[in-house]
Write a structure and sequence with these properties.
Largest sheet: 8 strands, parallel
Strand content: 35-45%
Helix content: 10-25%
Number of strands: 45
Distance between the termini: 35 Å
């Protein structure tokens, strides 16, 4: 029996309605005045509400009010020559905003150099401060830049500066600044981290509510799941009713699938209910589910479809009995499971009842693949099976056509499967240029029973469409069901970290990368394949000593640099054991961390690594956070000659804003014989300067692990 049986009807009868914000102003209102700069000031060659700014530094700057634009017939341009210092920009009149509030700024631009975005902040007294937002790379065509940011506690007004800092030009148009308190979610202060400026004993944008006969006590805790704060309610003398913390109602779209998530601790069963306001102002309640007691932090994840007339909504995580409930890290976002067509395989193809609708079977390479549409499943009555025999190469899988995705944001993928072999999950991304990228989500172990695979990843900034491939790469079978793709909820650390790693032990790096890192005070982790060091090569050993003496960490990268997944058990043990022993015996250091050659690994390789090391780093793309932290499968960004400075700056910005651990994988840094995984000295110098400018702390692998593990 559900805890809240009869609750909804009774609640309407006995409880005063919790007042929702009567302000019906559009949550999407653009705060930028004259945003397409079409309206000019009479007698002046400038748009209304816009101004020129170049009153500091040394340069020659020309401002122009262009007669062409992305939207309409006007745009803004600034060109700088003879640059020595300072910046130049067009900017709009400062506009009123709310403190501690999420906003989204965007504009379209063309430039022949990298540019920068900064918010100029005015407090209630008119005092000025600045909030850095982003870097942007050059673009010969109109390109959008979009940044999410949160205003500071003392913010009253802001303007956004799109800055030209150097010789070159910048042309801009189609400006937008909107409150994120908009359809789709964006709960204010979702992690309770911001205290109410008028009452520091309460969290900003949160309320408490109770009804019935009970004695509730509300407390603003100094501990939490993500960081240092959470909301707690205790009940004694319970006879009826409930008590809860709830967030300020947010705008929603009607007839839309959403996903509510939070983290909680409780010593009794609790329940989750949505309070929905219709466009008429009427209030209704929608029960979402019961949640079991848990002494440790545990995630709640419950779907909801909003009613046809829904306009605003808040979620009650209810305590209805003697006990306590502590909550943190709320999320409410559109549920994108619908992106996966026919996710549970229940619908058969209209033209072929022996195949699931909107799914395709595929194999390549040298193998024999048999595909079946089964009359059993994890849920429902159907699932899909692939069996591989005569395997020599390639893979086999069921897959759906790539679907439209949002670039640069976090996604969470899950499915259920059974298999008699280890299998692998890959994200196939189609970029806006039509090229293909692949993101490895890792290996799924064999399981005779239904088991869930789940992982989070960041969609590339150039992604247009994507699909998920669960693939078989050896003789055996795989059965899949219940696919889901949703916006991911990132749980950041206390601060962002960056780790610089170098694979193989290239000699050139002593003369190139090492002095550049020393200029900035950066330490790295050097992963050595010891077969390149062994023997009588005195200089190779001295190169290692130079890194050690400079304070850098030494890690293992095998002996002979093979694909570890192709080795016998004896060969695998040799590669792992001997490389560690050689490094420790030769250099007198503890070697705790391992990076697999080519980034190749499977469950067998991981089990071998666990015998000798405390962590494993491959080349799977992504960021490391509390919710996806896997010490045997750290995520990275791989550096190549094609990596642009704008990409690196975007990675740094993302890590800083979300408090993530970003690991960069380098190989050789040199200007001659540049290979497909190398970096030129010019690139490396610029990348290290960007890292220094970001202010993110740089740590070795071991330093980062020791700092982050206690936060989990």
């Amino acid at each position: 029996m559900k805890l809240l049986k009869g609750f909804l009807a009774f609640l309407l009868a006995v409880t005063p309605l919790i007042a929702l914000n009567p302000d019906k102003a559009s949550a999407h209102e653009n705060l930028v005045p004259n945003p397409s700069v079409e309206t000019s000031v009479a007698g002046e060659n400038r748009p209304e509400f816009w101004h020129q700014g170049s009153n500091w530094g040394s340069r020659s700057t020309v401002f122009s009010y262009e007669n062409t634009g992305l939207q309409g017939n006007r745009s803004l341009k600034v060109m700088t020559t003879n640059y020595q210092s300072g910046d130049a920009k067009w900017y709009f009149d400062h506009v009123a905003v709310q403190p501690n509030t999420g906003y989204t700024y965007s504009d379209y631009y063309k430039s022949d150099v990298g540019t920068e975005l900064v918010a100029e902040v005015l407090d209630a007294t008119g005092a000025v401060s600045y909030q850095w937002l982003a870097w942007t790379g050059p673009s010969s065509d109109w390109k959008q830049v979009s940044i999410d940011f949160t205003t500071t506690a003392n913010t009253a007004k802001i303007s956004i500066f799109h800055l030209l800092i150097g010789n070159g030009y910048l042309q801009t148009d189609a400006f937008s600044l909107t409150d994120q308190h908009a359809p789709g979610g964006n709960i204010l202060n979702p992690g309770f981290e911001t205290a109410d400026p008028n009452n520091p004993a309460q969290p900003f944008a949160w309320k408490t509510g109770s009804w019935g006969t009970n004695t509730p006590t509300y407390s603003y805790q100094s501990t939490g799941y993500v960081s240092e704060r959470s909301g707690r309610v205790d009940i004694t003398n319970y006879q009826s009713g409930d008590a809860k913390w709830y967030f300020e109602p947010i705008a929603v779209e009607p007839n839309t699938d959403y996903l509510f998530e939070n983290y909680y601790r409780a010593n009794i069963l609790t329940s989750v209910v949505a309070q929905v306001e219709a466009d008429s102002g009427a209030i209704s309640y929608q029960w979402l589910g019961d949640v079991a007691a848990s002494a440790n932090w545990k995630q709640t994840s419950l779907p909801i479809t909003t009613p046809a007339n829904a306009e605003r909504l808040t979620i009650f995580h209810l305590l209805a009995g003697n006990g306590f409930l502590e909550t943190d890290s709320y999320s409410f976002a559109e549920n994108l499971q619908g992106l996966v067509p026919n996710p549970s395989f229940e619908t058969a193809d209209a033209g072929n009842p022996n195949a699931p609708a909107q799914w395709q079977a595929n194999n390549w390479g040298s193998n024999t693949a048999a595909f079946e549409y089964l009359n059993e499943g994890h849920t429902g009555n159907r699932s899909a099976k692939v069996t591989v025999s005569n395997y020599q190469s390639g893979d086999a899988k069921w897959w759906y056509e790539p679907v439209v995705v949002e670039p640069g944001i976090e996604y969470a993928f899950s499915n259920f499967y059974r298999a008699n072999i280890p299998t692998r999950i890959v994200v196939w991304v189609v970029t806006d240029a039509g090229t293909n990228q692949y993101i490895g989500l890792g290996s799924a172990p064999a399981s005779a029973n239904w088991i869930e695979f789940h992982d989070t990843f960041t969609m590339p900034v150039n992604a247009a469409r994507a699909t998920i491939l669960h693939i078989v790469e050896q003789n055996g079978f795989l059965i899949v069901d219940d696919y889901a793709l949703a916006l991911g909820q990132i749980q950041g650390f206390d601060r962002a970290l960056v780790t610089l790693t170098f694979d193989d032990g290239w000699e050139a790096n002593v003369a190139t990368a090492l002095p550049i890192m020393q200029q900035h005070g950066f330490l790295s982790t050097q992963f050595y394949a010891t077969g390149f060091l062994d023997g009588e090569n005195y200089q190779n050993l001295q190169n290692v000593w130079q890194f050690i003496n400079a304070g850098h960490e030494i890690g293992s990268h095998s002996v002979t640099h093979p694909d570890l997944t192709t080795l016998s058990p004896e060969q695998l043990d040799y590669e792992l054991r001997e490389s560690k022993q050689f490094l420790e015996n030769t250099f007198g250091v503890k070697v705790k961390n391992f990076a697999s050659p080519f980034g190749a690994y499977n469950n067998t390789v991981i089990e071998g690594i666990q015998q000798y090391y405390q962590s494993h780093r491959g080349v799977d793309v992504g960021y490391n956070s509390k919710d996806n932290f896997d010490i045997w499968r750290f995520k990275v960004q791989n550096m190549t000659p094609a990596t642009t400075l704008a990409e690196v700056q975007a990675w740094l910005q993302h890590a800083a804003s979300k408090k993530l651990w970003l690991i960069l994988v380098y190989h050789k840094v040199e200007d001659v014989n540049v290979g497909p995984y190398d970096t030129t000295e010019e690139q490396f110098i610029a990348q290290m300067a960007a890292l220094a400018a970001s202010g993110i702390h740089v740590a070795t692998m071991q330093q980062a692990i020791e700092e982050l593990l206690p936060q989990l």
